[in-house]
Write a structure and sequence with these properties.
Blueprint lengths: L2 H16 L5 E8 L4 E4 L15 H10 L3 E9 L7 E2 L4 H8 L6 E3 L9 E3 H4 L10
Length: 132
């Protein structure tokens, strides 16, 4: 099983354990050490406190002082639904940029394939270009 498939399997496994019924979502990131770290978004009673599913895994990478090499986020509507890949939102793209534009990220696509692209592909016109 390659890295991308391992990430997918780790995220799916976490969703099935953490959210056995109903909606479920999780993230999986690979660190330069080869470790895979998973995370979920914490449940909150106040929407303004919501954070992305990937954040906890990104913070774990920072805690370990290790580069993120791959990132994946997925969800399903309920336990009978198929999983859908979520491209990183703009905030998570900025968080990932800390580790460089070569980080590989899973992206939403019409064929619902497990497809990874370099972060640079998602940020072809990134604002930082104005300062070069």
């Amino acid at each position: 099983m390659d890295t991308e498939q391992q990430l997918y399997a780790a995220a799916v496994d976490l969703v099935k354990r953490r959210y056995p019924t109903g909606w479920g979502g999780a993230a999986a990131v690979r660190l330069e050490s080869g470790d895979i770290v998973t995370s979920v978004a914490p449940d909150t009673d106040f929407d303004a406190l919501f954070v992305c599913m990937e954040l906890s895994a990104f913070l774990e990478a920072h805690k370990r002082d290790l580069k993120v090499t791959h990132s994946l986020c997925l969800f399903r509507e309920d336990e009978t639904a198929s999983f859908n890949i979520l491209s990183p939102c703009g905030i998570c793209q900025e968080r990932l940029r800390f580790w460089g534009t070569d980080v590989l990220v899973a992206v939403t696509n019409p064929g619902k394939e497990l497809l990874f692209r370099p972060l640079a592909d998602l940020q072809a016109h990134h604002w930082s270009g104005a300062y070069r």
